[in-house]
Amino acid sequence: MTMRTKKRLDSGWIRFICLGFFLLLLAGCEAGQQEKQGQKQQIRLDQLKQLPVEQIEPDSQTLRVGVGAVLSPQGTALSYQPLISYLGRKMGKPAVLVQRRTYQELNDLLIRNVVDIGIICTGAYRKETMSLLVVPQINGKTTYQAFIIVPASSPVREFSGLRGKVFAFTDPLSNTGYLSPIALLRSMGQQPETFFARTIFTHGHDRSVAAVMEGIADGASVDNLVYEFIGKRNEEIGRKTKVIWKSAKFGIPPVVVPRTLSPAIKTQLKELLLGLHQDPEGIKALEVIGVERFVEPEPSMYEL
Fold first, then answer.
1. Domain holding 98: CATH number?
2. In angstroms, rounded to a whole number, what is the distance separating the alpha carbons of residues 290 and 286?
3. What is the pTM of this model?
4. Terminal CA-CA length for the chain
């Protein structure tokens, strides 16, 4: 027997013994409960009750800022850190960036008070659990669009030409990266499962752009603000991709807070963000994320 084989066998026995110990422990606990109650316990899988959503007490000593995965984690950290640091200094407390891979995970953090403020996608907004705080103004507008892009060398000139191709979505809750192209497909009487040869989720608009540039996807639906923002910083994007479709205009991705957030903290955050463009230090933080200023939201723009 070789040493490699012996190690594999030893490892297998260790896992077997640990599993056996766990099962014996579990059985012992159940047997003890049954003996204590004097009867057998039955678990009815059709009668299980949903566990209550755990509420976490806010940490007043730290400002926790959740940012949706509009950009990849690296891009998000670099772009939003100056703004997060600014808010922390003005509020006199440490400020930390909280990131998750999907939009739904960030929504869960907002619901459970794990974060105090969230910069989310329009499609992820839920008025039942979140309050609109402010919205960004970019190029004098508070609206944005979905752009469907393909490689610049692609013969595809319209969306129907992507039939049988590989398509990149961003996130299931992304307005421009998923909901908008899905609505377009349905208006054509189509479904993504049968229209495309294959679909992928990139969990970042910049990653969707990269997927098209690198030939991983034949097309993608992306946030026009992200597409234009990163295009100004990388001229290759404009040379290697082209836009073949633009959606109607939607309310720009908002800044929200949990509905249970302290009114005092909510007011303080709102005043800081609305006055950001009047502070030299705040202006620098805005420039990094490509925003002119934050303004009051129009709730009707977010009734998708």
1. 3.40.190.10
2. 6
3. 0.71
4. 66
